[in-house]
Specification:
It is a single chain. With 171 residues, the chain is an alpha/beta fold. The chain has one domain: Trna Endonuclease, Chain: A, domain 1 (3-Layer(aba) Sandwich). The protein is built from 5 helices and 8 strands. The protein has an 8-stranded mixed beta sheet, sandwiched between helices.
């Protein structure tokens, strides 16, 4: 999009993609409190494609690059991994949001509600899982416990539980 583009210029096209079931809108929430829907910021959202295969086709990459991985894939594996987790959690019926603070680099990939609690979720594509955003978010909201989906094995910590990517459907 052009830097001068306005949301109104794309509103109908985005809504068409959503209505056709080809894309999903994930709204930003300003405050991690229940119910998350009440804290939606309607002016900010992320847009996710229907599935990883469609995104791969649009990126003109081979299925092998996505599944096996190569040097090219390292450039955009985070986006594919985040989309993978999104599709799995959406299939489980979770309403998903994200959290970001203006003028900050801290962003929580997803927030959802489960068992009457807000759950912050971070997605990492590798075993190198520096969790600065999630750690900072939890330190600012100590009543919450985070989830991180990554290539690492299952591990419980006081502030966060790591769940392997392959097991996100079982969460």
């Amino acid at each position: 999009m052009k830097k001068s583009a306005r949301a109104a210029d794309f509103e109908m096209a985005i809504q068409w993609l959503i209505d056709a079931g080809l894309a999903y809108k994930v709204p930003r929430v300003n405050v991690p409190r229940l119910p998350l829907k009440f804290y939606e910021d309607i002016s900010a959202f992320k847009l996710f494609m229907l599935d990883v295969g469609l995104m791969g086709a649009m990126a003109e990459t081979t299925a092998e690059s996505v599944v096996v991985g190569d040097n090219i894939f390292s450039e955009y594996k985070g986006a594919f991994t985040e989309l993978y987790v999104f599709t799995q959690l959406k299939a489980l019926g979770y309403s998903l949001y994200y959290h970001a603070v203006d003028n900050s680099t801290i962003e929580i990939d997803f927030l959802t509600q489960r068992d009457n609690q807000v759950i912050p979720i971070e997605v990492k594509a590798e075993v190198n899982v520096k969790a600065k955003s999630l750690r900072t978010f939890i330190s600012n909201n100590p009543e919450l416990k985070g989830i991180r989906f990554s290539m690492l094995p299952y591990k419980e910590q006081d502030w966060m539980t790591n769940i392997p990517l392959y097991a996100c459907m079982a969460w």
